[in-house]
Amino acid sequence: MKLRVLGFGIVKDIFGASFRDIEVGEGLSISVAGFKDALESQYPEIKRLASYAIAVNNEYAADNEIIGEKDEVAVIPPVSGG
Amino acid sequence: MVDIKITGEVLDVQLCVALVMAPESGGVDVFIGTVRCETKGKRVLRLEFEAYEGMALSEMRKIADDALRQWPLHKVLIHHRTGVLEVGEIPVIIAVSAAHRAAAFEACQYIIDTLKQTVPIWKKEVFEDGDVWVASHP
Question: Which of A23, B23, B61, B138 has the smallest number of Cβ neighbours within 10 A?
C-alpha cells in the first residue's frame, strides 16, 4: 500500500516536495508506529528532528492508531507559530 | 463567540479589538505577536510562516473552546497570518473579552502559550547568511 503523505516546514524540505507517496508494505492498513518506521527508513533525516508527530485526517494520531489508504496523513515537525 | 482566521493578508488590530467588544464586557485583553529583528544575537531579515491550514484552524478552535470552558469569557478571537513577514509586522493576534480582567488576562496567556505548542504552523527565520526552520532540530 502506498500512502500520500503531506510534509510541512522542515519536512517539506526533507521530502523535496509538499507531499510524497510512501510505500508502507503489503497490508491495506498500518499502525502509526509502523508508518513511522517506514517513513524513517525512507527519509532518515526525519530521525534528526527534535521531535515529530503524525496527523491523520487533521488530528494528532497516537502510535496505535490505524491508517488506511484513504486517510489524509501528514508529518508534523516541531511547531513554531505565534 | 469564537472568531478564528488564518490569512495571507495583513492583520488588523483595531478590527480584532472591535470584534471582541461586547456591552456586557468589562475589559478586552489583546496579545499582538510581532516579528523581532534578532534572534540569539543574529540579525533577522524576515520570517516566513507556513500552516497546515485545515488542521491549524481545527486546533485553534479547540484552544478557543477550551478557554471558553475554563474562564467566564464573552468573545475569543485568534487570527494568524502566513507568508513572508518583515520585521515589525504582526503574525498573530489573540483578543478576548470578559466581565472582569483576571479571566481576560489568564485566558489570553493560555491561548498564545497553547497555540505555540499545538497549532501546526511553522516559521522560518531568514538571516543574512541562510535560513532555519525554528525549533526543528535539537
Answer: B23
